[in-house]
Amino acid sequence: MVSVVAQNFNLLINDIWKLKYLKLIVLNFGPQHPSAHGVLWLILNLEGERILWAEPQVGLLHWGTEKLVESKSYFQIAPYLDWLDYVSMMAQEHVYSLIVEILGNFNIPYWAKLLWVLLLEITWLLNHLLNLTTQALDVGAMTPLLWLFEEWEKLLEFYEWLSGARMHANYVWIGGLLMDVPVHFFDNLNIFIEWFIGWLQEFEELLTLNWIWKYWLVNIGQIDYSWALWAGFSGILLWSCGFKWDIWILMPYEAYDQVKFFIPLSFCGDSFDRYLLWIEEMRQSLYIILQIISNISLGSIKLDNFKITLPSISLVKTSMEALIHHFKLFTSGLWLNSSLIYCGLEAPKGEFGITLLTRYNNFTPYRLKFRAPGFFHLQALNKLVWLGSISDLVTIIGSQDIVFGEIDW
Q1: Which end of the chain is more exposed for a tag (fewer CB within 10 A), N or C?
Q2: Which CATH architecture describes the domain 65-400?
Q3: How would DSSP label each residue in 291-356?
Q4: How far is residue 398's CA from residue 382's CA, in Å, rounded to a whole number?
Q5: How far, in Å, CA of 318 to CA of 334, rounded?
Q6: Which pLDDT tens digit goes with each residue over 348-399?
Q7: Where are the domains of the chain?
Q8: Which residues contact 65 (CB under 8 A, 6 or more apart)?
């Protein structure tokens, strides 16, 4: 009994000593490395190594995109979407083009929808590859970046082959796609997938069972089910705590109802669970791409109504009417009825949505508002890192898959 009282007394003395001699440290984390996910700047309140408060500072990358596009035609707005999440370019283009097509009641050809699904899955691979390799590098594992960054570059070559640009493709246009798929595109993509499946297995053997990797990720940044719903989480951060919210299945769009896949779920909600879900999502993307390649049904890639979509370059050179429509679409743009519409789709980081309001001058939007998943995930950072260490903070930032282009729009 005496020893227990003495022990409690010593603990009390230690706490008094801490209150007297320990000071709260205010630390700027970023906006340079190690918080270099764009220009992330955190103001940390620390007690020793423990984080008592983490306050994100946003706006350093602010471009005023929502205001800029109010003076642009609907065709001119499309390239701005590439700059939001500059790791998932075609996913952003797709959401915007789809919302305009819904508002204009455009019926896109089936082959264009299949190609959209193919391009979206390539975009998912690009996003997850960059996120996982850089997250491993942040934690301290350099080898995954050296192994898989070459595969990321190969995927960008497919982007370049389609659109002429490696990253900011501007390939998904209103009414379809910019141009048709090149010859041997699907053959080379099939060869790449067979090669990449082996590399993905090597990547898993390197990290998944590595006890150092698990030590840094298991039980770090756990997400509660009910709190994740309240905070507006989506995508993998929501799936990691067991909630199956999937727009692909609940509200199918494009040709996702024509392919087979499943949504991986987990229930612990920690950083390691999110890592496993990213790996499984890449496998599902590969499975979807292989299904599309094995069931190719060539057709039109855009609407034939040239008063809505752009005619092909060869037709512009030979037809005066096509040239006139081409000129009018680039100068005046589309005319849409007055309406308010929201469209939210699954992007690699979660649900990316756009609210479009058209009024008065219907050749340009009256208001365009983005719903970026990273913005909701970043606001939860303080809760996820509370009483954790700075090393936990680095792990959690990587597991949130934050890119500041969509946060500082």
Answers
A1: N
A2: Orthogonal Bundle (1.10)
A3: HHHHT-----SB-S-TTTSPPPHHHHHH-HHHHHHHHHHHHT-----SEEEEEEEEETTEEEEEEE
A4: 14
A5: 23
A6: 988 899 999 887 767 888 888 999 898 888 888 888 888 888 888 888 888 8
A7: 2-57, 65-400
A8: 80, 83, 84, 370, 409
